[in-house]
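User: Structure please.
Assistant: Input sequence and predicted structure:
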Amino acid sequence: MSFYSDENVATQYLDPKSFIAGTHLNASGRVNFELDGTSLAYLPNMRLLNVGCTSNGAHLYNRLVGAYAIINNIRLLDGKTELSACNVNHLIQGFKNVNRTNSHSESVDSKLSQNSLGWEVQGSDRKIGRVEKVNNANVLEAVSASGWLDLRDVFPMLNSVSHLPTAVFHNLNIQIEYSTLLDRQILVNAAAHITSKRPILAVDVLQNPKIVARLNGQLKSAKWLELEHDQFNIPESANNGGAADQGLVQSVNPKINGFNNKHVERIIICKEYQNPLKAIAGDGTQLGFGRYQSPTCFDQTVNFRVNGRNVFPRNGITKNNERLAYLIDAWGDCIAYPSSNQYGLNNISNVLVDAAQYSGQLDYIGGYIGEYVNDLVINYSRKGLQAGGGADVARPTTDALIAHVYAECAKQLIVNPDLSYTIEYAQM
């Protein structure tokens, strides 16, 4: 905007109004920022700084989610009115970090979020490997790396408005819930002792009454796609990887009620082990992307049945590359490497560094619905394979999984002449 160049914008750095540090002992934390309303308007490019934790040693952040793994739920409110929110943020943030070009992840995202994404061919052995980060959480807060989060990425409403005038939104505040359980694997060492850092909110403010009055006159309505969450369980197979599970097809057909009576655009499913120990090695370090991976099952089929009609033709999505193609068609560029969404490829260690840890870890299921939902059923099946090992060994073809379903739901803001407003689901 032109007013950036003529000193009409000032940046404020806000401490939390209240802050309860999340640690490995209390397993959670809370942060509350209050925008005090002394400015005429706030710009939507809000940034959350100093996101992360300190540790009892030098440990990398989770390689997929980075420092953002500490954020469980985050909400933007006006008083008690919810304007925008992201629940179960860490899992969808893992997909957002994947939903980039490889070069962007390597050069930009990994620096902002402290993740370790970005893949390249190694010169020494010609294998594909991660561009590993060297920034760690550390004992001293001054040297412990932290993330930088653009809040427009978690609050899509902020992408649809030019400004947030205090004449309309009187009591803006941001509430963040941390999750710091040891099995949440914020760091690659799942047994590390952690304490969340005190974040800072950076906001740009407008104080020129003429500019704010002009912008207020243009603020009549806004529409955006809110990313909402629901979930269903894929239960453990009947024999938990025993011999009788070999080739046994397991099907679930859950009815998803969280998106009823809403216009839904895109949808994405992220899978998670119900037992978090499945993603932790015996020495306490996480395997690959840890708990935030989306594990690949064997011979999966999936279809979305919306209002009695199947979204995908015939038997739905049945093949690995078909699943990846639908994902990219709906959501755009995604990082992929050989075996990222395939189970049990032979000799994959010949082309992928640490193949035993990273093979089959980025199996996201996505598609486009683009209609008003009265009834949504997900038809999912996988084929079991006999697998040995102990109780905590990962067996994605037969293990109990949680399928986290995120969908873009249309919402709108309507500002009345008296500067009161309404937020509601939109019909598009």
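Residues 224-410 form a domain with the Adenovirus Type 2 Hexon; domain 4 fold (CATH 2.70.9).
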